[in-house]
Amino acid sequence: MSAATRISPPAPIPLICANWKMNLSASEAEPYAAALRARLGDRSADLNKAFEVAIAPAHPVLDRLGRALEGSGIALAAQNLHAEESGAFTGEVSLRMLEDLGCHFALIGHSERRQIFGETDAQIAEKAARLAGSAVKPILCVGETLEEREQKRTLEVVERQLGSVLDQVDGLEGAMVVAYEPVWAIGTGRTATPELAQEVHAALRAMLETRWGTVGTQTRILYGGSVKPSNARELLSQPDINGALVGGASLDPEAFAETALACLN
Ligand code: PEP
To answer: 10-21: per-residue pLDDT in tens?
Structure first.
């Protein structure tokens, strides 16, 4: 087949995921869900292939939020999980508990987990291994600190973070989502320029394609770091940015809906 007639794989459906972090309680989740549903018009991923939306609340909020989102097509995501199946791990949450609540995604390796709680690449790979083949898809977060960027080590850092999961875990092909979140842009109001973000996304894409071929082309790579309605459209128009992980701006259902709707333009 000539280059001109080669059919490229369809672009991945963008995913916009809210990360509420340790904000919003179960009682606050209900009015939030109602407002978001009203604004998005209950577009189920099955009915409308334009984009997918997910929300990652704190663990005690998953159940009530899940009920409030029933029938909306908006997916539930967890912010973290423990790598072991079950056992004496006080304060931790297992994959089976997340499956039971109908979670579709789980964040792993968020920079706050890496930096504040000291999670290592090896521990994050163990969590990815626990999720492989399950109903809960990992959203693997990678990103460099300001110091690492200034030392021009951005690609080395994100490739190490992604590589450690790809090297150690089988069975994530077609399921894993990657989120590039430069640490210096998280919660700071500073956003990577679309060009700068695209450069890193392209490097991550190349790694995924080397390992997974076409599946790598179709793997969603989200951008995260102070994404909000005013910058979402430009970021999402980059060829290798397939959605967003939204922290601060996701706490307001109107702002989060506006950010998600930026996928449509
Ligand atoms: C995040 O922590 O995942 C995040 C993207 O936060 P913010 O949007 O607030 O920068």
So the answer is: 789 999 999 999
Binding site membership of 227 for ligand 1 (Cβ less than 6 Å): yes
Q: What is the CATH number of the domain that holds 183?
A: 3.20.20.70
Residue 145 makes CB contacts below 8 A (sequence gap 6+) with 157, 183, 184
Using the mean position of ligand 1's atoms as its centre, give its distance from the Cα of residue 33 in Å. 20
Q: Which of 82, 126, 181, 201 is catalytic?
A: 181
Residue 4 lies in a domain: no
| Alpha-carbon span 14 to 23, nearest angstrom | 25
Per-residue pLDDT tens for 71-85? 999 999 999 999 999
Residue 226 Cβ inside 6 Å of ligand 1? The answer reads yes
Return the axis-axis angle of helices 121-131 and 154-168, rounded to nearest 10°.
40
**pTM, 2 dp:** 0.94
Structural domain count, the chain: 1
